[in-house]
Amino acid sequence: MENVITIQVNGENREAAPGTTIAALLTQLGLKPGRVAIEYNLRILPKGKWEETQIANGDRLEIVQFVGGG
Predict the structure, then answer these.
(1) All structural domains of the chain
(2) Where are the beta strands (DSSP E) in 1-70?
(3) Model pTM?
(4) What's residue 70's pLDDT?
């Protein structure tokens, strides 16, 4: 079993531990869950699935942050 997997986040390769969930990845990246949308392997991933979805080697994520302003 590998100690690390490689994923792509917003076009950049990153390493993570096997079994890391989307929610845990957001925490590792310092992102607030209430302010992002996630495309996971070319599909929008509903927020309700973030805790149960584990990333795997080769996964591709696009994470978009919402920024308020005015």
Answers:
(1) 5-64 (3.10.20.30)
(2) 5-9, 12-16, 36-40, 43-44, 60-65
(3) 0.87
(4) 63
